[in-house]
Amino acid sequence: MTDAQKRFCDEYLIDLNATRAYKIAYPNCKKEETAAQAGSRLLRNVKVKEYIESEQKKIEERTQITQDMVVQELAKIGFFNIKEIYNTNGTLKSIKDMNDDVARAIASVKTLQKAGAMKIEVDPNGKDNVIPIEHIPEQTIEYKTNDKVKALELLGKHLGMFNDVNVNMKNTVVVELVDDVNE
After folding, report:
1. Is 138 within a domain?
2. What is the pLDDT of residues 33-67, one digit of tens each?
3. Cβ neighbours of residue 117 under 8 Å, at least 6 residues apart?
4. 101: buried, middle or exposed (CB in 10 Å: 19+, 13-18, 0-12)?
5. Per the domain annotation, does 163 fall within a domain?
6. pTM for this model (two decimals)
7. 43 is in which domain, residue-wise?
């Protein structure tokens, strides 16, 4: 493997973007389309493919994160059912009441606290002051879920379901005008 091919592999492993990696490994390449085609070709090179696979295995071992783990996490997000965050009476469940798979689909939680009902008592000294004796706050919980469509898109790409097809719509049409009106 050449130095440029190795540099391409190392760059490719950063974000799996073959076009970007090719343009860095081969700086004389300026056209995006050329880099995309050449990067795709390089990924089919046996030595390049073996090196990338070897490095990915090292990354898996070092991080203890496997492709299967990532795919399973994406599947939990992609196939999350919104009904699972509600109790049977229609109120939102608290995070602690959700199972782990459902909680993984939640991107963020916002708890808004408003002043709610208040029990009051008039000041016994006869002043116009009010003494709150019980404050019952109202809470609104807002859940934001992870992007299901993006998770499904990534799963589909992983499974090879979506092949990007470039359709060339540049056709030349010749129109011939025929004057068939008799004078």
Report:
1. yes
2. 999 999 999 999 999 999 999 998 898 888 888 88
3. 136, 138
4. middle
5. no
6. 0.51
7. 3-64
Contact indicator for 138, 113 with CB cutoff of 8 Å: yes
**Count of structural domains, the chain:** 2
- 56 and 85 share a domain? no
For residue range 118-139, list pLDDT tens digits in order. 555 666 666 655 555 555 556 6
Sorted by sequence, the CB contacts under 8 Å of residue 74 that are 6+ apart come out as 151, 154, 155, 158
Beta bridge partners of 111: 141
**pLDDT tens digits, residue range 56-102?**
889 888 888 888 888 898 999 999 898 888 888 888 888 888 888 88
Position 25 in a domain: yes
The region, left, alpha or beta by phi > 0 then psi within -120 to 50, assigned to residue 90 is left
